[in-house]
From TrEMBL:
The chain crosses the membrane at residues 65-85. Multidrug efflux pump. This is Probable multidrug resistance protein NorM. GO terms for molecular function: antiporter activity; xenobiotic transmembrane transporter activity.
Amino acid sequence: MGMTAVLFFLVPEKITGIFTNIPEVRALAARCLKIGALEQVSIAYSMTLAGALRGAGDTRGPFQVTLITLWLVRIPLIFLVVFVFRSSLEFVWVTTVVQYFIEALLMGRKFKKGDWKKIMI
């Protein structure tokens, strides 16, 4: 996903050009991909740790972290961005960067805490 981030950041216009030839859409999508590049490593980290926790028998932990970051971070922030601040689409993408970063931090904390080591499978 790190390589995907590099591609999203360095050649977003080429990627968006595969899907549309409308200049305005390509430009907006390219800006969103550049922002999306910033979340790729956090997503990979979070997914890897969530998978490790689930594999160790802790299925509730990753679910709780995802539920918390989705309902208490991402959705409220998107609501604020769209309905209160009336910001552009790029800011919706920024909220996903924030959500995945917080999710990665919480997933890392849950993993390092080590409660999963005590679970009997």
